[in-house]
Every structure is written in C-alpha cells, then in structure tokens.
# Entry
Amino acid sequence: MNCVSCEAAMPSGARFCPSCGAPAPSAAAPAARKLVTVLFCDLVGSTELAEGLDPETLRGATLRYFTAMRAQIDRHGGTVEKFIGDAVMAVFGVPVMHEDDAQRAASAALGMLEALAELNSRLEPTLGVRLRVRIGVNTGPAVAGSDYSAGQALVSGDTVNVAARLEQNAAPGEILVGALTRAALGTAMEVESAGPLRLKGKQEPVEAYRLLGFARDRDALAEPETRETLPFVGRETELAHLRSDLDEVRGGLGPRAVTVLGEAGIGKSRLLRAWLEQAGRPLAVGLGRCRSYGEQGSLAPLADALRRVLEGPGAAAAHGLEALAVLEAGLLKDGTPGASPEATRAAVGEVLHAVSREAPVVLAFEDCQWASDPLLDLLDQGLPSVLRGAAVLTVCLARHDLFDRRPGWSGGHRLLVVPALTRADCGTLLDLLADRGVEPRRDRAALLEAAGGNPFHLEQLLAAAQEADDETQLPPNLQALLGARIDALAGEEREALDLAAILGREFEVEYLAALAGEPGTAADSGAVLPALTRLGRRRLVELADPGPRRNDSFRFSSGLVHEATYQAMAKRTRAQRHERAARVLATYPEAEWTAAVGGHLEQAYRYRAELGVTEDADEVLRADAARALAAAGARALLRCDLAWAADLLERALKLFAEGEPGRDATARQLGEARIALGRPEEGWALLRPVLTSADRLQATHAELVLAATGPQAAVDAAATAARAALPVFEAANDGLGLARARIRIAQEQQLLGQHAQAGNLLLEALADAARAAVEPERALALGAVGMSLWRGPEPVGPALARCQALLAEHGGPRPAARLTLSCPTAVLLALDDRFEAARATLTKAQALAASLGFAEGEIVLPMFAAAVEGAAHEPERALELLDQARAAARRLGAGGQVGLIDREAARLLLDAGRVEQAAELIGLPDGSPDGGDRLLRSDAVDLDGLHARLAAAAGDADTARALAGRAVRAAASTDSPVLAAVAATDEAEVLARLGERAKAEASIARARACYEAKGHRPGIRSVDRFHARLEDFEDFTFTADAAEPRPARGARR
# Structure
C-alpha cells in the first residue's frame, strides 16, 4: 500500500503515513474531481460591530448567526467546509453530488438572507445591532477529498477562489453568482447581470449575476425556458397509450393510473405536455412536482396539483363541500395530511369525484422518485381506494430509481417506459435545429452517438459544441446529472464502475476482476459480477457482445456515463489505476493488449507529469509506454490499419527521448504511415532524419522509401536503391526489407517490359512478405503480380484464374491484399468482355480503399476504372476518370503518376481526333527520334507511338516514321503482347496517314495477332474497327477537337 499524498510505501495496517503523516487510504476517502457549487457568506462591518459590543455579547450574537446560516446550508443538502473568522464557506456536491446542487446553493443563499432578517428582528430590539452579509456563489470543477469523521469537505480549485472573490465584490445584502451557476439556475431564479467583474487573481474579467429571488409562479405545464425549446419528435407509441388511457376515463370506465418511467432527460415531461396539448378540452389538469431538497409538506405536490384542478373546469362543483373545507384547513394550507390522514384521503376523493363529474381530471406528478413516503403510499394505494368510479387519470413521471425505493410499486398503475429516441429521430432533431440556424460544430455522427438517444443529452452536447472549443469535457449540466447518479452508488458498485472506466467504454469481466483483485492473485469474475448486476439494474452498465476471447463483457450504458465516471476520478487516482491496469493486462498473452498496455502506461505517465511528479520510476513508465505503443503501432502498420498505426506511432514518438533505442524505427514507420494516408510532406519530413541514423537497417529502409515515394521518386531510382539495400536486408534477415527491395526491382522490370522476370521476383517478394506477415508488402506484391498478368504474356483466361487463385490464397481476411489484386483483376475481366463484373469489382475495391484510409487509391482506382471504360469503348467516361486521377496525384504529391495519366488521356483524345488537346498533354515531338530515351521501355514505347501519331497528323513524315519504328522495335524486345499490339496499331495509323496502306495492313495484322494471343477481346475489336476505316486515312486531314476522324473532301468512304 502506498501513501496517497507522498506515495511512499506504508506498512500493512498503518493508519498514517510514516513519511508525511497523511491518513492511510483506508482512513481517508480518495480525492475526486467533481462539479460543485461553492458558497461564501461573510459578515459586513464585523470590526465596527466588535467595537460596540461586549465580547461575550458579540460571541453570543455571532454563534446565533453561524447557527442560522448553517441551518440553511444543512436544509439544502450542503456541507460546511469551514468557518473563517466571520465567513462561512459551504460546498454543495460534497460528499455526494446532486443534479441540482446549483439550485440548492442559490436557494440556501436566499434562505440565509431570510434567516438573517429574522435573526435581526430579535437582535435589534435587545442589542441594538443589525447584522449584514454579502454572499458569493460559484459553480465549477473542483477536487474534493472528504474527512467524514470531522463532517467537513476539503475542496480546492479555481471554483473556490472565484466564489470567494464574488462574495468580496457583493454589496451588503447582495448575492452574486457566477456564469455556470446562472446557467444551471435557468428560470427557477430571477437574476440580473452584474457586469463583467475584475476579480483579484483573475487575468480576464469574470461574468457575474445578481441573484434577486425565486422566479414568479408560472404555468407548471408550460415548456421550461431554461434554453431554446427542442422540437418534439417521435413518441407516437407513447402518445397513443396515453390517449387510450384518457379515452377510457372519458368513456366512463373509471379511474386509471399510469407510471411513465424513463431516465433523466429522456423526455417524460415533454411527452406529458405534448399529450396534454393534444388531449382536447374540457379537462381539469393538476401538476405537482416532487423536490429533491428543502422542507415542504409531505403531500405538497398533491396540494399543488389540487389547487390547479380547483382553478380549472368543473371546480365549481366542489365549492361548498365539507370535504373542501377539510382540505383547506390542512392539505391545501401547508401540504400535510393534517391530524387525520384517513380524513384527508377521503376528502381528496370526494372533491375529485365532484370535479370529474363536470370534466375529466388529470393529476400529473413529476419526479416521483423523490416523492415522500406518505405521498407514494397515497398514489400507490390510497387514491385508488377513494377514486372508484371517478373520471380521474393519475400520471406519475419517475426515473427508474423509484423501483429502488418501491420494488413492489403497482397500485393498479400501468407502466409506460419511455425508451431512447431512435437515431433517425435524433437526426430529425438536429435537422430541425439546423433550420433554426443551430449547427453543431462537432461531427454529427459523434454527436448522435454520444447522446445515446437522450434529447436532453443531445441538447446539452450541441450547446457545448457551439460554445466551447474543448469537446473532451462534459457540459456542466450533464456533469451534474450523471455525477449525481454515480455519487449515489454504494462502495462496491462505485469501485467497480471506476475501475471499469479505466478499462474503457467496453470491458471484459475477467480483466475487471483482475484489476479489482490483489496483485498476483488469479482473477475471480464472481467477485465483481454482483456489483455489475446491480449497476445494470441502475442502467449504468449493460451486457455487451463477448470480447475477443469470447468472455463475458459489459459496456457502459452510454459514452457519457463512461466519461462522467472517468472525469470524476482525481488525476492521481487515474494515474495509479492506469498503471495497475497496464501491469494486469501485460500478464495476458494476447497480442492485441499491447496497444491497451501502452495506452494505460501513457495515461499514467501523462497524469503524473501534469501533477508535477518527477521520479526515477516515471522515466521507466515513460519508456515502457513508448515501447508498447511503438510495438502496437508497428503491428497495426504491418496489417494495413493505417489510421490506427499513425495514431499509436505518433503517441510513441512523443514519448521517446532523442537517441533512445526504438525512436528511429518509430519515426520511420510513422513517416510511412503518413505517406500512405496521403500526407507525403509530413512523411518525408519524418524519414529524412532517419537517413543519418546509427541504425543502418532503419536508414536503409528510409532511403528505399524516399527513393520510391519521395518528391524525386522514380522507378529506376527506387530499383537502384533496392539493389543497394538487398545485402543489408539479407544480413539482417529482414523479411520486410527483402520484400520491399524485390518489389521495387520487379517494378523496374515491368516497365522494361520483362513481365516473366518480374513475376519471378514478385513471387519471392510475396514469400518474404508472407513469412514476415507484412500486409502492405504482401498487398503491393500481389497488385504487381496482377499487373504482369494483365500486361504480360499470360492469356486473359489463365491470367484471371491465377488472380482468383491468388485471391483465394492471400485475400480472405486481408483487405489490402483484396484491394490491390482486385484492380488488375477488374481490367482482365474487361479484356474478357465482362464489363459489369469489372465495374462491380472496382466498386468493392473502392470501398476497401476507403475503409483502409489508403490515399493512393484516389489515384490508382480511377486509373484502373478508366482502363475498364476504355476497353468498354466509353472514352468520355474514361477521360473523366483520368481527370480525377490527375487531380488526386497532384494533391497527394505523386507527380510521377501524372505523366502516365497524361499519356493514357492523350491516347483517348487522339482516338477521338482531338489532336490539339492531346498535344497539350504530352507535347509535340521535337523532331529528333530520341525524346523517349529518358523513360523506361514501356513508357518510352507508349510516348513514342503517341508522338509518332502527332507527327503524322502534322505532316512530319520522317519523325513520324522514325518514332513509330522505334516504338515497334522496343516493344518487340519485351514479353508484353499488349505493348506490342499498341505499338503496332500506332505504326499502322502513321503508315496509313503516310499513304503506305500495305505496310499499315501488315502492322494491323501483327497487332491483331498480339491481341489474339492475349485473348484481349476489346483489342481485337478495336483493330478490326481501325482496319474497316483504313481507306478513310488516304489523303487524310484532321479537324482539331472533332469527335471522330473526318476524311478530306473527295476522299472515298
């Protein structure tokens, strides 16, 4: 056991720390972070008062003052923190929070002024003195620790300081409240602005308000005006049930009673108001509200409801009744049952019978979970016994807590449970608010998820998202509401909930039991299940789907409950529990816990750093957290979980010290993740320092990645870097590096048109990647294999079969592998005239790319789609897709892809006769047959063929013939029938334009033979179409941007 103050080790059974003297944890409740309301009340002019009174007389008056003030604090559920001279400091929310602590404090402050006035009425005639006070009230977060044996609350934080400064700035007899207090009061109290105040110790002015008193009475059924009213949506089922109950009462079927049950904020009161608005008239309606604090008669809510009934339709029928006189002498006078509860109950029945004969009566009671026992007895059993035959509908609105007090609650009440709003209804609420100009700044889906179908939660989250930049903090009203539920828990339940909050929104019972148990002991799930069951009944947790190991799992009933529980723990407590959780989870063998272990260690370290704790053990904590997060991030990267990898690696990098082992590897991996996510500049910036790393393996990886993806990336440069890197990777037996290097060398071979040779290298790379379980390289190798099956000598049919076999072997649960191999597979399907299947395959690939966060997919997917549309003879659609790919390449810094995209687009434009547009993309030939030498063979063949066509169109016969011939010769040195067919087709067009028809037909024949060998059906059709139009090329001229090539005037058709 460690001291909660200095964290020194303490002997077993010690009541106080031998180092600092602080109470042992068992003797002092742990500190907690709470939303509290602090009240300061101070006597004005106490020095002058002391001068004019005998010390003993002064002491007596002061004690009477303190007694009166304390009585008001106690009455409203506050706790006296301390008496400081003539000042009283009280805290509302300690030791137990209430959702209405701000209202309690404000009501107590008003009560203190009334009590002081009464005290002065006795002091002034006898002593000739009149006491005056000023009061400050402020709401906000604070750290609270409690010494219950002393009956005092120990609270600290800026909230306390501001409350004290507000009191000092108040005038005698005045109450000043802070902004959060004012917001929490809503319209329950009347306030006016006291203007921004310059308070001592505060850099910025503080908004303050003058508390004037309780709000005037208004229609209890009116919509609360604490905020702009949310539109009422949904609840058709619940409205129908209430309408049915009222119809039965109106139909003479006797009294009915219904209990409307639901969590706080779910919309019970709004449902009641909406139903009453639709109920029609005449209807005598009475509403009573049960209060959670203060002194009122035990039947006061019933008295309030009866008063309203007696002001409505049918009230005249009760005038003159002896029963009414009985009620006026007791219940309606002070809210108590009087000397005879039986006579009061009978009188209530008689009055309601009389009124209901004239108009049906609805008695509605809000917050029945706070009702007094006598009122619950009356509603549950007493009223039904005296209302037989009366047209009275009793509606009790309550939270589930009612059944904690009254498990057998019935009294003939039908239960109507108000569930969470559907996500669609919550979306409608947001839409309606958007129509009013209330737009959420945070993500809509996240807002709906956090609200959990609770309209009040949604409203508060929306308001907070508009007003504050920090979305990690719960809105104050939600903190109060949820904090009160959490604070009401018994010890075992609170401990279980707190520990569960450390584990996360969802947690396995076994891990919770291990965390709750003594270190070194086996987890006993049975020890925590009873507490979880009780928490489930309180709707704080619920069963979840079994965890990864198929164990029993629970989750918090909402993210807000989880957040409120977590925020209520002091940072020191969080740090201790996070470290303990990390050590517990680390004892389990599951690899997926690495990220959780690192996350817990990270949180423990950061909280200790925030608290200013600096010890040698914290350095160990930091280093352990960095290593665990780095390992988890590396594993996520290897399985292509890019966003998660980047998050983990970034957190790890922040924890690593400069020069610490593992830092360079983490920086390199984070750089790779950033590049893959479409943030290349950030990735390059992380990779460049690794080039000089003392770790040669990491430096070599960085060199290869920059050569392949950097701002000067080129396939031949990457292949050169890969050849240099191979010995380093081989010496380290680095499967990742070997796979990468072989892929880059193979990609160069592909552009040289040597697909068979490339295929052999890629199969080696695939084996390396599979051995090292590196999914990005497995996916890259598979995609490259698919490219060679598309462009290489393998016929379309067998190539498709190979792709499908590779998918079966390597796809399965690997989305990245399915993505990269699906793209060339789609093109092969198009070459087999299966265009719809090709498009469907690319649609699935697009979904995979989006789920992986694979930024390069924005470039390559439109390029593959353009190839499919080109094969389907849809050139305009293909051009649109290439435009998309070009824009993405420029945005993502992939300039090397732009040349390929431009050549593909230029070919489509030339095929459509749009010569000038094609020339704008790839430029005109420069008149010498060496312009393509700067490119690798496949690219050079493509560019030479296109330039030859442009030269022929421009009448430059020598250049056109030379370029076309060079392209054909270069293509012949490759094993790509597709490349050879394209070169032969380009040559045929050039020869046709030059009037060499026989040679053109020979070129067409070679192109057709290549396409036939490949099984390339669209290619065969394209050369056949070209051959049918061959005569049109005699004496041919082009019209720029024409949709089709047009023969010259007089040419034969």
